[in-house]
Design goal:
about 375 residues, 5-stranded mixed beta sheet, 3-stranded mixed beta sheet, about 40% helix
């Protein structure tokens, strides 16, 4: 079995993530290819697509949300994702059990006496009028039946798990702030999410495996599990195994991949790229060493925006008032520093709508 070096896996991941060369895909095509964008922070997907696409304009992404071609929903890992509307409808039922388990694990004590089916029915009755509500408003409408649980646990269980809900614009639109308001996915998109597959079949699981490998592979099943949050994909992997290639990484893990997916030479040059907070290019793996050193791994879950140099996390960055501030994690070579400054200048202009293009470097450690 061919062994793929960490550098080879890095270049493959960059290629799949549209970070090796900016892509000519449209915004909706890129959102679909990437299996959605992590959208825990509402403005971050704009930087994510700017770093990946050649001709990206913020209105392209805002238009997907207002045009109901894409939605903000709780899916993978119970985090907010911006995904294509068809993917939200097709995938939501496959994530139901995981979403429920994760909320119940967080609020095990508070929700001990709550019947999820009864709570879901009560929540649906409240939302049946088609009016958007905040999580707090929905929770306060039902808390009288479960006063011991408290509104926060009830609201999270309803919004993130029991009811397929979409987080409505204007939240998530370019340069727009506002609280999160929710509506049933079916009310926003005009039809119910696809029902669960018959027992013994997992067509959505198989689609998720193939789509994940196209955007993240080569990858181990542990990586697939870390990205999706789903434990129950062994059947889907087994069904697809004859169609997949197998490799090993330097630690001996078996990696699966699509036969025709790009696996660039490990010496392929990798340009500087600025990634937004919680980008799935990092969070989409259990073993993140292909893109970030273990000593910096916590940056990926702390909401730090990072800079890739030669394909690896080499700095963090912040932005404000037309200035991008870069904080190197180590000393940057002159050529790398110049490349970071060039890309940072373009990013500063993008984020400020052309009002500023300054780059400042914090002292190296």
């Amino acid at each position: 079995m061919t062994v793929l070096s960490a550098r080879a896996l890095n270049r493959a991941a960059l290629a799949r993530q549209l970070l090796l060369d900016r892509s000519s895909l449209t915004a909706p095509e890129a959102v679909r290819h990437l299996c959605g964008l992590q959208a825990q922070e509402p403005q971050e997907p704009f930087t994510g697509l700017w770093s990946r696409l050649r001709d990206f304009a913020p209105a392209d992404l805002s238009g997907l949300l207002t045009g109901r071609q894409a939605v903000r929903v709780h899916l993978m890992r119970r985090t907010m994702h911006l995904v294509a509307a068809d993917d939200a409808l097709g995938w939501r039922a496959r994530h139901d059990a995981m979403l429920r388990q994760r909320v119940l694990a967080t609020y095990r004590r508070e929700l001990a006496g709550v019947d999820p089916a009864e709570l879901a029915a009560a929540g649906r009755a409240v939302m049946a009028d088609g009016e958007p509500r905040t999580m707090g408003e929905l929770a306060r409408a039902v808390v009288g039946r479960w006063p011991g649980a408290g509104p926060r646990p009830l609201g999270e269980l309803l919004v993130a798990a029991l009811l397929p809900m979409v987080q409505l614009p204007p939240r998530g639109l370019w340069r727009t702030t506002g609280g999160a308001r929710y509506l049933l996915l079916s009310s926003w998109l005009g039809r119910e999410p696809d029902p669960p597959a018959p027992d013994g079949t997992d067509p959505v699981g198989e689609e998720l495996v193939l789509r994940y490998l196209a955007a993240y592979g080569p990858a181990a099943t542990a990586d697939l599990r870390a990205w999706s949050g789903l434990a129950g994909l062994p059947g889907a992997v087994a069904a697809l195994r004859p169609r997949l290639l197998s490799f090993r990484d330097e630690a001996g893990r078996v990696l699966l991949d699509l036969p025709d997916a790009p696996r660039p030479d490990q010496d392929t040059p990798a340009p500087v790229r600025f990634l937004p907070a919680f980008d799935n290019a990092i969070l989409g793996y259990q073993d993140r060493s292909r893109i970030i050193d273990d000593e910096h791994r916590l940056l990926s879950v702390a909401g730090e925006r990072v800079v890739l140099v030669d394909g690896r996390v080499a700095a963090t960055w912040t932005a404000g008032e037309g200035t991008v501030t870069v904080a190197p994690l180590g000393r940057l070579a002159r050529a790398d520093r110049e490349a970071v400054e060039s890309e940072g200048t373009a990013l500063a202009s993008f984020l400020s709508d052309g009002a500023g293009d300054r780059v400042r470097f914090a002292p190296s450690p």
